[in-house]
Amino acid sequence: MSLHKEVWDGAVSLRHEGIDMRAVTAWSLLGAYDWNSLVTRAEGYYELGVFDLRGPHPRPTAIARMISDLYQVAFKGITLSFSYLGALCASVVC
Fold first, then answer.
1. CA-CA distance, 78 to 57, in Å (whole number)?
2. Which one of 45, 48, 63, 85 has the fewest beta carbons within 10 angstroms of its own beta carbon?
3. Is 65 within a domain?
4. Residue 71 maps to a domain
5. Count of domains in the chain?
6. Cα–Cα dist 29/27, whole Å
7. Mean pLDDT of the chain
8. Distance of alpha carbon 51 from alpha carbon 60, whole angstroms
């Protein structure tokens, strides 16, 4: 979580310096399997992403809340709603 905040702060700093910084992405939106071994072994080890997929429905994690808070500050009160994840996944291949 602190890594994303550090990257976000760096991007904001670069924009203040006049750099055309347009995006910060979150790794990994839906979590990742077996990255603890750099995908050299298929152990099924799941690490949370912005959403936790272990339940019947994607659940926002602390990272999701932090990203929402960062965007609210950056975009003057615009709130990100995570209830649209199902529609998002239906519109792209998830």
1. 24
2. 45
3. yes
4. yes
5. 1
6. 6
7. 79
8. 5
What is the domain extent for residue 49?
26-91
The CA distances from residue 26 to 43, 78, 80, in Å, are 24, 19, 14
| pLDDT of residue 89 exceeding 60 | no
What do you get for the CA distance between the two ends of the chain, in Å? 23
**pTM of the predicted model, to two decimals?**
0.63
- Which residues are registered as beta bridge partners of 52? 59
Counting Cα atoms < 13 Å in the Cβ hemisphere of 65 gives 5
pLDDT tens profile 41-75: 999 999 988 899 998 888 899 988 888 888 777 76
Asked whether residue 92 carries a pLDDT value surpassing 60, the answer given is: no
How far, in Å, CA of 34 to CA of 42, rounded? 6
> Has residue 12 been placed in a domain?
no
Would residue 6 count as lying in a domain?
no
